[in-house]
Amino acid sequence: MTTATRDRRFVTSLHGTATSLAVLAAALACTPAVGQTVPPTTASTPAELPSQAAEPDSAPASTNDIVVTGTRITSSGFNAPTPTTVIGEEQILKNAQPNIFTTVAQLPSLQGSTGASTGTFSTSSGSQGLSSFSLRGLGTIRTLTLLDGQRVVGANVTGVPDISQFPQLLIKRVDIVTGGASASYGSDAVGGVINFITDTKFTGFKANVQSGVTTYGDDGQVLVQAAVGKSFANDRLHVILSGEYAKEQGVGPGNFGEDLAGSRDWYRATTLVNTGIMNNGSPQFLYRDHGQAYQYTKYGLISAGPLQGTAFDANGQPFAFQYGSNGVPAKNAAGAVNGCFVGFCVGGDQSGHVGAGTSLQSAIQRLNGYTRISYDVAPDMEVYMTANVAQVKSHNQPNPGAAKTGLTVQCANPYLPASIVAACAANGITNFQYGLSNAILPNIKVNTDRRQYRFVGGLKGKADLLGTNWTYDASYEHGINITDIDVDNISLTGRYNQAINATRINGQIVCADATARAAGCQPINIFGGTTPSAAALAYVTPAAGPFQHTKQTQDAAAGSISGEPITLWAGPLAVAAGIEYRREFYRVNADPYGAGVSAISPNSALYPTDPNLNSTVGSNWYAGNYKNGTGKYDVLESFLELNLPILNSDTLGRANVNAAGRATRYSTSGTVYAWKVGGTWDTPLDGLRFRAVTSRDVRAPNLSELFAAPVTTTIPNFTDPRKTTANPNGRQVLIIQNTIGNTALRPEIARNTELGVVYARPSWLPGFSVSFDYYKINLKDVVSSLSAQQIVNLCLVDKIPDTCGAFDLDSDSKFVNVQAFNLASIKTDGFDIEASYQWRKPLGIEGNLTLRALTTHVMKFVTDPGLPGTIPVDTAGANTGATPNWKWLATESYDNDAFSITLQQRWFSDGVFGNQYVVCSAGNCPASTSNNPTIDYNTMKGAFYFDIGGAVNVTKQVSMFFKVDNLFDHDPEPSPQTNTGLDVNPALYDTLGRFFRIGVRARF
Question: Residue 773, Cβ neighbours under 10 Å: how many?
């Protein structure tokens, strides 16, 4: 790491890092020596398997009350109508993952969650290594994640938290509500709610140490966790401390060509090549392995003109490039290759591929310190505070080198071999088009550092009022998240273009432009594999690369009460009510080369003035958007929820109606309402219950959508579609394109409906439970992005007024603001099945046998862009995305006093690349269209993964365990696109391979 880079990070992150490390050190320093004795957690503890079939509403808040995620009612004997899946502490331990996120994300109802293996191709999104959940495939922004029922500050401007920053060793269960819950919890709970419940009364000491590695010898992992809890002052004061350290080395990157990290061999550069012909009776798209982009090679390729097809080897010597598909360069200005496809050949020289050089998994380092202090002011009154300070660092490589196409190279360039100079002269040209992977440049490294500081203070308890025992809870949360993105080894486009334009002066090779030379330009040789000089690299890829510093804050105050004020014919009427206030804020600043020079991004010694860079707009780096921006909004909410028992009869059973309403005022979009109505019926038939719920749910636009950091681009030939006598086909104008947020966005509105039946613990088989739940979600006013041309055409051609205020094509300063609008919609439906069986002393053998299976079937997932000329697209079963038709998870475990063994199977069904494609063969294809293109193959196989784990009790307090994930080392399927890339879908498929873990746990 260079001194300049260290200084750059020092300025933005020193204070936060020091604070987080200090708090963590304090937490670990307070951990006592092993010596106390409390009930142990051993391999013989029965697996906790509460489920939606097995009545998950069984987490005691006090002696008589039940806390149910998905409702704000606190009452004994209450069954919520919204399906809830529960993952208990024992199941979390048995899965032996370094991050609890992975355990939860394996559930079939979670589709499209993001973790360390997603987003590795990105440079500036800030999502690298961020662990966040997506229920029902609706995206992470439509799943609300809570910690002990309270919101958590976002780890990204989209508002989603990072599960890696939670106090994971103290989590005793996770509730997954697979249905809309906005009436109970507010915005974002469209797909559902995931609530992490910590052990607030933990007493004793526990620790976990584990390590792991893949079968390929990479992604080495270490996890160290410890927690201590103790009561003082006659059990009125309770203190909990925990600390965690985790490190995952990551996987990859591979290299140029088709070489993946380690000895993995599944990458084949699979591509959907475009024939470019839409109406000749043959498919337009062809599924092919070894797609070859013919615009560049590893060490350089002349890509157009009379010298097209001339490549350079590592020594800078020219040779005839081997095109795939028996392609022959047309040697015209367009750079076409006869016999090949649009932009691609198949086979041939594959050495220039960059897709395999993407990290398969980001490297992650995680530090977490947590404390909870509570004091019982009275027997039924607790005052408490929590502090959670965490840091997550990640590192990834988007791709090797920095591929360039369409470069104009002068034939007078002194680095060119004499034979090429002569060929230029013979063909009467002075320059040519050129492309290369830039293997001569160091590989780009993205470093992301997220730090969270979260503090909660609250008061909760019980009070008698007018003869009713009321439960109350009041809290205030202040959260800060600081994210720093620093990118190393990335080039400045303006300097690169000057450095490759070389000439010879007084016998020395120098940059051709005198102004660039005065600013420090040093030439580089892009013909072959010669490494540039240190001075040239310092000029093109300066040590002070791009950075982006983001600060987000969340302030949330809430107060609620719950009680049973009236007893009716069938039981007490339960009531919950509350009021909540929340404020969200963000600010981001970046370097002047990325954001443009301004008061908050000034030139400096690290970023000096450079006439070859755009100082006004910025955007000078090879990749990424590093911009300045800020925004805030606040929310005021109130809610009321009722549970009305309507039936309590030995003959007819028990039934209740649950209803809730919430009024929410957003400072940006006004007032919106959410509600739900549902009920359950425990029939007189042993163990049989029906449940149903329908709700109106909302998702408010997030900070990124409302106040996105602006990006400005000049578009020289933009089409004004208005037809005149002088311009019957419209006119071409120069515009300024401003990519910005849209403060006029409205909340998304969803209608959720769920119908279910539960058969739980019948007397003839008390260990058995099964449930079936159908769901249907209709989401309107979906926030979606449009191109500049779409924005203009919607207003001027299609007469849709929503976009008319986003542009001006008549003044001297013509512009189009590219922003999101509420135009799209999503409709999805399907069903969940969950079953479990627990058999104590199976076949008379001491111990417990536990079986559990969960299945989700997505029948449809239709997205309508809401734009003229487009059609709705059903992505259910498209395995290139997040919603396979079928997905299930099954576990089988046996426990006794000496050991435990657990088997797990994960599976999802075969699918397609996209349901929009029409499969056909040569001679029988209809005309291909943009909405329904033709293709020769449209099958993407699913996957089956088998995991095994076990534990042995060394003593009553200590156990040793192992886990093997993906035992049979199942490779991922190609996820072909129409461009170059890694072409795999880590959201569904395991891209790492077989994984081994071992560890030791202790509890005293």
Answer: 25
As a whole number, mean pLDDT of residues 16-33 equals 37
d(CA 208, CA 212): 13
Neighbours of 251 (CB within 10 A): 26
- Residue 1003's nearest CA partner among 207, 241, 238 is 207
> What tokens does 866 get?
């809401």
- The single-letter DSSP state of residue 421 is H
Helix (H) or strand (E) holding 92, with range, is: helix 89-95
Tell me the C-alpha distance between 24 and 21, whole Å.
5
Tokens, residue 561: 């009460």
Tokens (6 digits) for 83: 């399906």
Nearest to 829 by CA among 860, 855, 856, 854: 860
* Type of residue at 826: I
Provide the CB-side half-sphere exposure for 59 (13 A, CA).
28
User: Using one digit for the tens of pLDDT, what is the confidence trace for 908-949?
Assistant: 999 999 999 999 999 999 999 989 999 999 999 999 999 999
Contact 131, 98 (CB under 8 A): no
Q: How far apart are CA 401 and CA 398, in angstroms?
A: 9
The answer, yes or no, to whether residue 50 has pLDDT greater than 50, is no
> How do residues 508-520 score in pLDDT, each as one tens digit?
999 999 999 999 9
Alpha carbon separation from 450 to 128, 155, 378, 549, 563 (Å, rounded) = 10, 7, 39, 10, 41
Token duo for residue 45: 């503890």
In angstroms, rounded to a whole number, what is the distance separating the alpha carbons of residues 577 and 604?
Answer: 55
Taking alpha carbons only, the member of 87, 80, 72 closest to residue 194 is 87
d(C-alpha 276, C-alpha 587), whole Å: 45
Does the bond joining 40 to the residue before it have cis omega, within 30 degrees of 0?
Answer: no
Using DSSP bridges, classify how beta strands 301-302 and 995-1003 pair: parallel, antiparallel or unpaired: unpaired
Angstrom distance (rounded) from CA 215 to CA 229: 38
Q: CA 835, 839, 843, 849: dihedral to nearest 10 degrees?
A: 80
Q: What would the pLDDT profile of 959-971 be if each residue is shown by its tens digit?
A: 999 999 999 999 9
Distance between CA atoms of residues 334 and 387, nearest Å = 62
| Per-residue tokens: 131 | 């662990």
Express each pLDDT in 218-229 by its tens digit.
999 999 999 999
Half-sphere exposure of 787 (CA within 13 A, CB side): 7
Question: How far are the Cα atoms of 237, 238, 492, 594, 606 from residue 601, in angstroms, in the given order?
Answer: 49, 47, 17, 9, 12
Alpha carbons 346 and 350: distance in angstroms, whole number: 9
C-alpha pair distances (Å), 165 with each of 369, 823, 986: 9, 35, 22
Distance CA 531, CA 315 (A): 11
Handedness of CA 496, 360, 874, 863 (dihedral sign): negative
* Cα 236 to Cα 224: distance, rounded to the nearest angstrom: 30
Are the C-beta atoms of residues 617 and 712 closer than 8 Å to each other? yes
- DSSP code of 32? P
Per-residue pLDDT, 785: 87
pTM to 2 decimal places: 0.90
CB-based contacts of 599, cutoff 8 Å, min separation 6: none
- Residue 59 host element (H or E): strand 59-60
Residues 892 and 890: their CA atoms lie apart, in Å, by 7
Q: Which of 117, 79, 386, 368 is nearest to 242 (CA)?
A: 368
Whether 35 has a pLDDT exceeding 70, the answer reads no
Provide the edge-to-edge strand list for the sheet that holds 404-410: 318-320, 310-312, 301-302, 431-436, 404-410
Q: Which helix (H) or strand (E) holds 183?
A: helix 182-185
Q: Which of 695, 706, 709 is nearest to 600 (CA)?
A: 709
Could you give the CA distance from residue 32 to residue 907 in angstroms, rounded to a whole number? 43
609: phi then psi, degrees, rounded to nearest 5: -60, 135
Residue 27 has φ and ψ, to the nearest 5°, of -65, -45
Radius of gyration of the chain (CA): 30
Nearest to residue 927, comparing CAs of 284, 276, 275, 272?
Answer: 284
